[in-house]
């Protein structure tokens, strides 16, 4: 379990590099760091449990049980906090994404990140392709289209025009 959590934490930290423009909060990597710390603690606790079982130590097994109960209480608390603050996280991420989409011009680094995000997640805009109609880029191009990164990958001749939404 500790190895699995370590992998998940490292994967999240590695993936963050691709999406860091959308997560401007300085605490965005905190959950991944906590996951890695929990993995280390779980490994140590597992060793304590194994040693206590091997030696048949009542004190060691009692300590192991107490630690497991504390971890269970912490997990329940984390679940409750995640449930309570899920809407705040959602609105914060959407607000940050909207600000990045507003900076889109097709050339700068933010534009590259937006294109990468839309291609990797097979999406268009924050909620859907109509989000582009309010951006400065959409109004400046004047061709009533969205970026080509919004096009479905199986569409070869996609132009990004809004009058052909089946291609987006």
TrEMBL record:
Q: Where are the transmembrane segments?
A: 28-54, 61-85
Question: Subcellular location, in the record's words?
Answer: Membrane
Q: Which SUPFAM superfamilies match?
A: Tetraspanin
Chief subcellular site? membrane
Identify the InterPro entries for this entry: Tetraspanin/Peripherin (IPR018499), Tetraspanin_EC2_sf (IPR008952)
Q: What membrane topology is annotated for this entry?
A: Multi-pass membrane protein
The UniProt keywords, alphabetically, are: Membrane, Transmembrane, Transmembrane helix
What is the protein named? TSN36 protein
High-level lineage? Eukaryota, Metazoa, Chordata, Craniata, Vertebrata
Q: Which gene encodes it?
A: Tspan36
């Amino acid at each position: 379990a500790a190895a699995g959590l370590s992998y998940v934490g490292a994967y999240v930290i590695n993936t963050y590099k691709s999406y860091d423009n959308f997560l401007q909060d300085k605490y965005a990597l905190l959950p991944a760091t906590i996951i890695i710390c929990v993995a280390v603690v779980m490994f140590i606790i597992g060793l304590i449990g194994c040693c206590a079982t091997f030696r048949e130590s009542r004190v060691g097994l009692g300590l192991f049980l107490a630690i497991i109960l504390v971890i269970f209480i912490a997990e329940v608390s984390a679940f409750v906090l995640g449930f309570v603050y899920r809407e705040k996280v959602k609105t914060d991420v959407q607000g940050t994404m909207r600000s990045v989409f507003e900076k889109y011009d097709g050339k700068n680094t933010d534009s590259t990140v937006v294109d990468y995000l839309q291609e990797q997640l097979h999406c268009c805009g924050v909620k859907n392709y109509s989000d582009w109609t309010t951006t400065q880029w959409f109004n400046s191009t004047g061709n009533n289209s969205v970026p080509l990164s919004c096009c479905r990958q199986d569409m070869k001749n996609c132009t990004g025009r809004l009058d052909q939404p089946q291609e987006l």
